[in-house]
Design a protein that fits this description.
Distance between the termini: 53 Å
Domain ACT: 30-105
Number of strands: 8
Structural class: alpha+beta
Oligomer: single chain
Keywords: Amino-acid biosynthesis, Branched-chain amino acid biosynthesis, Transferase
Helix content: 25-40%
Catalytic activity: 2 pyruvate + H(+) = (2S)-2-acetolactate + CO2
Order of helices and strands: EHEEHEEHEEHE
Largest sheet: 4 strands, antiparallel
CATH architecture of the largest domain: 2-Layer Sandwich
Number of domains: 2
Subunit structure: Dimer of large and small chains.
CATH class of the largest domain: Alpha Beta
Function: Catalyzes the conversion of 2 pyruvate molecules into acetolactate in the first common step of the biosynthetic pathway of the branched-amino acids such as leucine, isoleucine, and valine.
Strand content: 35-45%
Length: 186
Amino acid sequence: MSPLNIEKGSSKHSAYDLRASFSEVEETHTLAVVVDNEPGVLARVIGLFAGRGYNIDSLTVAETDHTGHRSRITIVTTGTPQVIEQIKAQLGRMVPVHEVHDLTVEGAAVERELALFKVAGRGEARVEALRLADVFRANVVDSTLESFVFEITGSTQKVDAFAELMRPLGLVEMARTGIAALARGT
């Protein structure tokens, strides 16, 4: 029997049946991309995602090396392992990109998000909002007679949980930074 043929009832796959070896399970990955800090770079990176139909779940960018004029873009995206590898390869080929790190596969990483929540309420709802903010270690950064603005930092799950608890108490508005992440250790 030729190695490229499949016997009836056999669990062996043909070399032509490549789809059987690829995972169709989508995974979420955090990518850290070091780029030149110059006009249009972020638009080019985002254009790579948009042009190929890839979604960005979270995006943060800031200058991290003032003297070297470099910025770090942290992107959280979801896709099959093959799609993630394709994204990393395409990012790595872009001229203003210096480094691409997949923090999800390179080892342990620390991820945090900052969010601001405006919660309006009176009476018991106001007291409950303050109590929950204390439990979540959220800071009150603004207060009026009708509302609070809370600041919270932590994992995306923590921020999501705080939002869900604030909704029935009068959540009016929220702003989120997106994920900032660094690899642990040296």
